[in-house]
Each structure stands twice: as C-alpha cells, then as structure tokens.
C-alpha cells in the first residue's frame, strides 16, 4: 500500500513555528516514527510553499498511490484549484490539520477541500496523520 503525505505552506517550519499551536516536533522527526508504526506502508512525502506544486503533486499521486493525506495549510482556506485537483483524482484524500481550525480565527473555519475529501481530522496534533493512515489502511 502506497500512501502519499502532502503538506502545504509553512509546514516546513514545524518545530519552530508557533510551537504553542503546532508543537515542537519537526515533521521529519514525526515522519520517522510514523514509518516505524506502519512498516508495511510505502510512504511518500512532499512539502511545498507553492500552490501549483501542490496541485501537481495531487495530480501525480492521485494516479500513483492508494490514498493521500493532505494538510494544505493556509491554502485550505483559499484554494479552489486544490479542491478541483482533489475532485479530479481517484485516490481517496483525507484532510488533516494539526490545530483545531474551528477553534481559531473565523477565516480558518471554511475549507475549500473538506467537501471533496473522504473526511477531515483537525485539532489532534501530529497524531492526526497517523489516524488518517489508520483509516486508509483499514477502509
Ligand atoms: C493548519 C491550519 C491552517 O489554518 C494554517 O494556515 C496552517 C496549518 C494546521 O495544520 O493546523 O498553516 O493547516
């Protein structure tokens, strides 16, 4: 089973970025423990601060993997293009947010992606990624 994790803008700064909101672990550190927890899963990981690159990766992985875990970060709240990319692919997409977007500023409450995704996990920290893997491997 191949699962693609795609992270959007500023998530390359996890570990130092607003640690009170996003925690103090880098994604790379977390990714190592995730791979150990699911040794049978073949993971790929892509991060970009550029919307078009994220759309390109969704298109590519949508045809090449069994499921996508997408944290589009700020583009969640702005990008019709990312939502359209999710609609265009076959692979199921689980939307993940580290923080609880519904407990934050109002402009974070709307997602252009949720309606196109299988589901959304928000507010459970980095653990949200492994909950999403669990869903994809057992569905
Ligand atoms: C985020 C929530 C977004 O509102 C924010 O822009 C992010 C990260 C999260 O994981 O909690 O960059 O997607």
Write the topology of this structure.
Elements: E1 2-7, H1 19-22, H2 27-37, E2 42-47, H3 51-62, E3 67-71, H4 80-88, E4 93-97, E5 119-122, H5 127-138
Parallel strand pairs: 1-2, 1-3, 3-4, 4-5
Bound molecules: 1,3,4-trihydroxy-5-OXO-cyclohexanecarboxylic acid.
What's the quick description here?
This protein is an alpha/beta fold and 139 residues long. The chain has a single domain, classed as 3-Layer(aba) Sandwich (Rossmann fold), CATH 3.40.50.
Would you kindly provide a written description of the structure presented here, covering whatever features stand out?
The chain has 139 residues and is of the alpha/beta class. 35% of the residues lie in helices and 19% in strands. Strands 2-1-3-4-5 form a five-stranded parallel sheet, with helices on both faces. Helix 3 runs parallel beside helix 4. The radius of gyration is 14 Å and the shape is globular. The chain starts with a strand and ends with a helix. 1,3,4-trihydroxy-5-OXO-cyclohexanecarboxylic acid (DQA) binds next to loops.
Largest sheet features: 5 strands, parallel
Which CATH C-level class is it? Answer: Alpha Beta
In DSSP terms (H or I, runs of 4 or more residues), the helix count works out at 5
Helix- and strand-based class?
A: alpha/beta
CATH superfamily: Dehydroquinase, class II
Q: Under CATH, the topology is which? A: Rossmann fold
Widest sheet, order of strands:
2-1-3-4-5
- How many separate domains? 1
Shape: globular
- Distance linking N and C termini: 12 Å
Proportion of strand residues: 15-25%
Bound molecules: 1,3,4-trihydroxy-5-OXO-cyclohexanecarboxylic acid
Low-pLDDT parts are none
In round numbers, the mean pLDDT is 97
Q: Please give the number of β-strands.
A: 5
| Estimated helix fraction | 25-40%
Give, in order, the helices and strands. Answer: EHHEHEHEEH
C-alpha-based Rg, rounded: 14 Å
Using the 3D structure, state the CATH architecture: 3-Layer(aba) Sandwich
């Amino acid at each position: 089973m191949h699962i693609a994790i795609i992270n959007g803008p500023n998530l390359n700064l996890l570990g130092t970025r607003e640690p009170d909101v996003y925690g103090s672990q880098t994604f790379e550190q977390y990714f190592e423990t995730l791979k150990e927890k699911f040794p049978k899963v073949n993971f790929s990981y892509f991060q970009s601060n550029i919307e078009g690159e994220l759309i390109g990766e969704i298109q590519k992985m949508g045809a090449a993997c069994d499921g996508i875990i997408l944290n589009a970060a700020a583009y969640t709240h702005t990008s019709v293009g990312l939502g359209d990319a999710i609609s265009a692919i076959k692979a199921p997409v689980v939307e993940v947010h580290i923080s609880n977007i519904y407990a934050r500023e109002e402009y974070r409450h709307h997602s252009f992606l949720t309606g196109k995704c299988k589901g959304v996990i928000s507010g459970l920290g980095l653990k949200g990624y492994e909950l999403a893997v669990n869903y994809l491997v057992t569905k």
